[in-house]
Design brief:
The longest helix is centred in the C-terminal third of the chain and has 41 residues. The chain is an alpha/beta fold. Helix 4 crosses helix 19, helix 8 runs parallel beside helix 19 and helix 9 runs antiparallel to helix 10. Strands 6-5-1-7-8 form a five-stranded mixed sheet, with helices on both faces. A three-stranded antiparallel sheet has the order 2-4-3, with no helix packed on it.
Length: 516
Amino acid sequence: MECIFLFPNYQLFSTTPDSDLADFAAEMLAFIDRHGELLPLIDADLDAYGLRKKAQRARQRQAARAVLPALPALLSNIPEAEPSVAPRTLETGRPRMPALVVFLFLLMRGRYGSVSDQDACERFCEYKTIEAVLSPRGLRLPSRQALVDNLNAVTNATRQAILDAQLQDCLTEELDDFKEICVDSTAVCANSAFPNDASLAARSLQRAFIELWTLREQGVVTFTDGWMPSWKNTIVCLARDINMARGKKAPSKRRKLYRKMLDTMDKAMAPMKELYKTLFAEDAARLAPQLQAKRERHLLDGVQALVNAWKAGNQIRRRVFNHEAVPMDEKLLSLADADAALIIKGDRETVLGYRPGLARSRAGFIVDLALDKGNTADSGVLVKTIEAVTGRVGDVPEKVTTDDGYASQKNREAALKLGVKLITFSGAKGKKITPAGEWDSAEAIEQRARRSAVESLMAVMKDGYFFARMRRCGLENVRAEMLEKIIAYNVDRILMVRARKAKEAQEQEEKMRNTA
């Protein structure tokens, strides 16, 4: 029996599959075609990243020249460089990743949470949609590390410009007029474990030990271990026993273990402090350039780990033995993310992370992200959010709805002064500062009823766009991750609202036709 293939390339599909990703990719391409000014911004970010890498290579070459032996024949072939002048232009080299590829995967990272983990790499390699998007434009799937480096080179200013252009499209298509916004905040986990004094102290001291041993292996420092390995193991075991203590006698047992742990830490930190002081005093010019860079990195990481160990030990002394309430800004909360804070929001579970505030429009678009370091009060960001929305959409929102956390007489007066016609605070505090006639008006009641929509938005972002826990560390990196997720969410929302309006128009047309 002879088999006849329908397609000459023997592929299952001859066209792009009808899928959510295909719609998402088509919208991204149409968007970037409408806003050609965004690609030069991405190119400028990649140029700046390339110049930083070029300057780093130039410093390494200059350092290498300084340590070369006096070989005139060899040195005469090496061009002179000015160490005080950083390179200002990029020369012809390997082809750079196109800005369009960076843009596409920037938004896909926001939608899928990652472009570098195993699941994401397998997904992109197997998706025919990705091939159908890249191939017609002469593009190919980049390597994992090159993609991550280029995505991280994009600045938050460029991400903000993409969000601005997105909202302008919504205005142009009349998907939303942004005259109504609803504002709320949520707790988001950082990429870090919940703080534990004993574990933080043990892990910090372990890190300080490891950095010293790494420096010794590289031949940078010489010392004998002595009792240090034994002390390290003792501290790790004590931290484990402290965390495992249970029962009625657990508090007294923990105190004894904490006392022994602090005494062992003091014995271990004394010789380590002297070793690090010696390393800082030594001249590293005799080392090769690469070894100098490694030495500096391990030295700084080790000293920071030693400082963290001292800080964790001081927390234990103040909290356990002096019965002090250590202020939040003096606590060591995370070794991975120094900008993370304990987020306490009402009677909900306390998390280590960030407290972003989102402004949602009537049609469901996210029009602003407010993110500061620490457990910031909602009342302190409301006016800034209104001003940011005004600058982004070009007009002051007429109606603003929030919960009681944003309520204050100062915020109400400031919002009205900016041009907001109706501002409602849901809760007893908001009722107290709002005139009775305005509070009981049908318009205000309707706005307060709509406030739950922003709660739904938070759930959608956390469940569908990986907003519940961040992958990156540091305030600016977390802001970048959140902006990518917000832009990706808005793309899906544009598709949804556009389809809904088209369906409503079709139903209206059919209704008019039937009436006629």
